[in-house]
Q: What sequence folds into this?
């Protein structure tokens, strides 16, 4: 499933590198956003299958948390913009610069992207905010809290979980 979709994405990226009028560029960018969303959905389904079979393995590599969160936002910004929804990002760290972690940055991006996609889906107007905050850090671990807030219809209290936490090394 991914191979033909990756072909569509690659060809569309080549198309975006050519001279296009404004309408053509807008359509190609919309196509890119849709293809990226579909690829993300396919990856989520494959990951769910791996989780259910006990075969999902996290990778460990150095990555930049700020860039990872911002990449997730970049993936959905056109969908939000097309609905007139503003996307706001706040990243609080103990250092003024970006911070790095060792862990599965792709999984972090996937989780943030899923949260943002759901927020945009159920928000008709207003804004969606993603906030990432470094809660604690040791020489080997850090705890990052990521929250998504929106002006959408909300989730009933009985369907909300108290919190989710992920540990990155």
A:
């Amino acid at each position: 499933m991914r191979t033909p979709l990756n072909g569509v994405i690659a060809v569309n990226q080549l198309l975006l590198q050519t001279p296009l009028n404004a309408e053509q560029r807008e359509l190609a960018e919309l196509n890119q956003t849709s293809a990226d969303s579909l690829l993300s959905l396919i990856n989520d389904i494959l990951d769910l299958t791996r989780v259910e079979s006990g075969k999902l393995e996290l990778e460990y590599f150095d990555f930049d948390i700020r860039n990872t969160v911002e990449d997730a936002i970049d993936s959905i910004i056109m969908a939000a913009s097309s609905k007139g929804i503003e996307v706001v990002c706040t990243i609080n760290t103990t250092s003024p610069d970006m911070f790095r972690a060792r862990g599965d940055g792709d999984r972090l991006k996937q989780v943030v992207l899923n949260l943002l996609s759901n927020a945009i889906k159920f928000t008709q107007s207003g804004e969606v905010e993603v906030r990432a905050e470094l809660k604690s850090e040791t020489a080997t671990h850090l705890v990052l809290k990521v929250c998504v807030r929106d002006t959408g219809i909300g989730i009933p209290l009985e369907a909300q979980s108290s919190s989710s936490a992920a540990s990155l090394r």
Summary: The helical segments are 2-16, 22-53, 65-82, 105-121.
